[in-house]
């Protein structure tokens, strides 16, 4: 099973260049259609599940706007 | 049923050697990628307090604002001369220049060549985007044959304007150099390899092994009149054949240092 992950894009840095959108192997990134950042760009965002934490998006991001997390299930605590 | 809880581990985050500033680069310009890679290397080597950058004239003229390390601004093309003075007077610092192809191959051709010939113990990061970005996309010495720019509107005519200068090959031919390679920033795999080369170039300086230059093929979506993803493809299809990637000089001393 592929790793499970998520990304968080920092709106302050994002310039909506679309490079992350174009390289994501699972196509879970879009430029937010309804949202603008302070510079008037539609920032990138993860819009659906399926991120595999490969960091390809972060690797091509010229504005170092993306943080990538790996998600690992935590065993249920006994009460 | 309770929802599954997840532990979050950071796989990648913005390097701390970058200031919390928006850069002046156009959207999708890989100058930003080159900055990020240098900052990652500075973080990983733990040399933020010991690094001095030398900024060029060109789109990277404000590089000193984007790195959280000491920086000076050189006159056009003179960064290797300034870096020479700084490194010779402060030999325990990591001194690097960051230069475009107009800066390094046109007006600064003399300074880079002689710094290489002297084997100065500095690191040169050379951004080749095949034009003068800052001033509106004029022809550079690195412009490809047939490439349209604002000063070669019908395409570079080699009969009139000469052939592109392959800097990595040229500098590697100089006896004084230690590490000279060309990498590209057009996709994630190549970006990872570019980072390794930047790390090696700084390690060469750390060990006092002499002159290191990393040429990075880079995009200029604005003056190429392409979207950022199309600019990545244009680089791959048009620049790679003229500027083959590779290791052009790895001195025996660098090889035996195992870096
Ligand atoms: C002495 C001098 N000559 C010319 C210029 C005009 N000028 C500014 S930037 C530049 C070239 C920049 O091109 P490059 O080094 O390729 O960097 P880029 O902007 O593409 O990153 C020129 C010719 C100048 N500022 N100073
Ligand atoms: S690559 Fe970076 S700057 Fe470009 S759209 Fe994605 S997050 Fe924004
Ligand atoms: S880490 Fe990989 S899968 Fe996740 S959003 Fe980025 S490119 Fe897509
Ligand atoms: S003009 Fe070209 S090189 Fe300069 S910041 Fe814009 S895209 Fe980058």
Structure summary:
The complex is a heterodimer of chains A (79) and B (259). By secondary structure, chain A is an alpha+beta fold.
Q: Would you write up a description of this structure?
A:
The complex is a heterodimer of chains A (79) and B (259). With 79 residues, chain A is an alpha+beta fold. Chain A has one domain (5-78): Alpha-Beta Plaits (2-Layer Sandwich), CATH 3.30.70. In chain A, 13% of the residues lie in helices and 27% in strands. Chain A has a two-stranded antiparallel ribbon. Chain A has a two-stranded antiparallel sheet with strand order 2-3. The model of chain A has no long low-confidence stretch (mean pLDDT 94). Chain B has 259 residues and is an alpha/beta fold. Chain B has one domain: 3-Layer(aba) Sandwich (Rossmann fold), CATH 3.40.50. Chain B is built from eleven helices and eight strands. Chain B has helices at residues 31-45, 63-66, 79-89, 101-107, 109-117, 158-161, 167-172, 188-206, 221-224, 228-242, 252-256, and strands at residues 5-12, 51-55, 70-73, 94-100, 123-128, 177-184, 211-217, 246-250. Chain B has a seven-stranded mixed beta sheet with strand order 3-2-4-5-7-6-8, sandwiched between helices. In chain B, α8 links the parallel β6 and β7 (211-217). In chain B, α1 packs across α8 and α4 (101-107) crosses α5 (109-117). The longest helix of chain B is centred in the C-terminal third of the chain and has 19 residues, at 188-206. Chain B starts with a strand and ends with a helix. The chains are: A alpha+beta (79), B alpha/beta (259). The A-B interface holds A 4-6, 10, 12-13, 15-19, 22-23, 39, 41, 53, 55-56, 58-74, 76 and B 2, 4-15, 18, 22-23, 25-33, 35-36, 39, 187-188, 191-192, 221, 227-229, 232. Bound molecules: thiamine diphosphate and iron/sulfur cluster (3 copies). The site of one iron/sulfur cluster has 12 residues of chain B, from α9.
